[in-house]
Specification:
binds zinc ion, five-stranded mixed β-sheet, alpha/beta
Length: 311
């Protein structure tokens, strides 16, 4: 479809001034070539005055938001669209408190769960793996001494980082929380993140060995000393990403990130980082809405099962 998206706040306000305009937009994103029944994949359906679509084949009824993160929402789509704009138009994103204040949401919990729902939409299903030469390393996040480098952190989460080499700069990245720095964990992350045939560049940590058998070329740079500067020079891209990630967690979220929810913050950071050169913030708005209608709904209850929100 034609990605017609707003380029400024004013355009967004004008384009999505009514509930109907929001619904139409989601319908175009979800069913670009016409209605497809979420139940039986039937392709013939018609809407009633309450915007419920009836499938001709199975006779079931669906709204355009059924099965998406917007399903069952009690607030107008117009408020959701403004939340998506806030999340995508600011370079570092929005905090739950900021979202609550700007949109006048009744509770912190609502803002918090909206941000988590949107984070779940930030991973595109079937996205392509990293390619070319890719640096890989791990770092600890959270805990009392952020930035500590080592492989035995306590009260911290271990995050694997993969960063494509793009000339002297960084291409795309992938982040993934791993339980430990074992061969199984590191190889598992690499297989998820990087397309076979690529060159994986790591330090001399023994568990990385064996990548050739998984279809990768392995380039190893061994540390001569134990200093942090040496590490940063050997794998400059992953170290730059690690520093930016920690700064973002401490800045935008003021370190108020529960390790239980870290995966979703990693997804948001990755979404932003990989689109950092996008000339138009409006395009991010479009992409996030597009992905938001492709995924399953999550309830507040399902999110807090993994932990409680906190300010
Ligand atoms: Zn059907």
């Amino acid at each position: 479809m034609d990605p017609n998206y707003p380029k400024t706040l004013l355009e967004m306000e004008q384009q999505f001034a009514t509930e109907d305009a929001c619904r139409q937009y989601l319908r175009q994103l979800r069913w670009p070539s016409g209605f497809v029944c979420p139940g039986c994949q039937g392709e013939v359906g018609w809407p009633d005055r309450l915007h419920r679509w009836t499938c001709q084949r199975c006779r079931r009824q669906f709204t355009v938001t059924a099965g998406t993160i917007f399903e069952g929402t009690r607030l107008p789509l117009q408020v959701w669209f403004r939340a998506v704009w806030l999340v995508t138009s600011q370079k570092s994103g929005a905090s739950a408190l900021g979202l609550q204040r700007v949109l006048g949401l009744g509770s912190y919990e609502t803002a918090w769960s909206w941000l988590h729902k949107l984070r779940r939409a930030m991973v595109r299903p079937g996205r392509e793996g990293l390619k070319g030469t890719v640096e890989v390393d791990e770092t600890f996040v959270g805990g009392v001494t952020p930035g500590a480098k080592g492989r035995d952190g306590e009260g911290k989460a271990l995050v694997a980082i993969a960063a494509e080499q793009d000339g002297k700069g960084i291409g795309r990245i992938r982040l993934g929380r791993i339980p430990d720095a074992s061969s199984a964990s590191l190889h598992g992350f690499i297989q998820q993140a990087i397309t076979p045939g690529s060159v994986v560049h790591t330090d001399g940590w023994a568990p990385y060995q064996g990548l050739e058998e998984l279809g990768y070329a392995h380039s190893i740079t061994r540390l001569k000393g134990k200093s942090k500067t040496a590490a940063a020079e050997l794998l400059p891209r992953v170290h730059r990403v690690a520093a930016l990630l920690k700064r973002w967690l401490l800045g935008t979220h003021q370190g108020a990130v529960s390790l239980k929810h870290l995966d979703y913050y990693l997804d948001e950071f990755t979404f932003r980082f990989n689109r950092r050169r996008s000339a138009s913030r409006g395009k991010l708005f479009f992409r996030l809405l597009e992905q938001a209608v492709q995924i399953s709904p999550v309830t507040y209850g399902e999110i807090v099962q993994q932990g409680t929100p906190h300010q």
